[in-house]
Amino acid sequence: MTPETRTYAPTERRRRQIISATIQALAESGYASLTFSRIRDVGELSSTRLISYHFDSKERLMEAVVMQVVSDAGEVMRPAMDAASDFRGKLAAYIRSNLDYLAANPASAIAVTEIVRGSGRPRDGDDVSVMLLSILLSQGQHAGEFGEFEPEVMARSIRATIDEFAYRRTLEPADATEEIDEIVAIYDRAAHRAEEGRS
């Protein structure tokens, strides 16, 4: 292990600790009440200077929180999608695993929702998410599994539904199994309903 490696590991652990505390603070008190002092107290950190050492602004910290949640969700979604044998299955896995992650991690869902609402700007990575989902939908069309529709429009609709689900987790933290099943079924039908009208 090199000196650089020894330094990197504790730094990353500390950054993750700060991000986790920020997620919890956002879930408990919301974006408007978020301060470095609040994060320090929630995370039982030694000082606010520790936070500003790793993140030089609140905006940078918010970006790191969003990217961490996206990364954590990806760790759940990728294996589910890889296990599907066709594009129809991959689409269902994409939606279900994303919603399952949000349902199982309500604090993360609340945190990202608070950041988007509080900052008044789109979440970083939204365009990339839409682009990647559009590619999946387009590949499914070329494979003959999906019908005729505009992939980007469908992708944005799916992403909007997922974001709305995340927001409602802040208001209705009840079991979401039936709702997730219905959302998956709706988009499965939407992708294939268009196919019935193809000539």
Number of strands: 0
Helix content: over 70%
The separation of the N and C termini measures 63 Å
Integer average pLDDT: 87
Uncertain runs are 3-7, 194-199
Number of domains: 1
CATH architecture: Orthogonal Bundle
Envelope shape: elongated
Q: What is the string of SSEs from the N terminus onward?
A: HHHHHHHHH
Total number of helices: 9
Overall structural class, as computed from helix and strand content, comes to: mainly alpha
Task: Please state roughly what percent of the residues sit in beta strands, choosing from under 5%, 5-15%, 15-25%, 25-35%, 35-45% or over 45%.
Answer: under 5%
* CATH T-level topology: Tetracycline Repressor, domain 2
Q: Main beta sheet, described?
A: none
Rg (CA only):
19 Å
**Level-1 CATH class name:** Mainly Alpha
CATH superfamily (homologous) name: Tetracycline Repressor, domain 2
InterPro entries: Homeodomain-like_sf, HTH-type_TetR-like_transc_reg, Tet_transcr_reg_TetR-rel_C_sf
GO molecular function: DNA-binding transcription factor activity; transcription cis-regulatory region binding
Protein name: HTH-type transcriptional regulator BetI
Keywords: DNA-binding
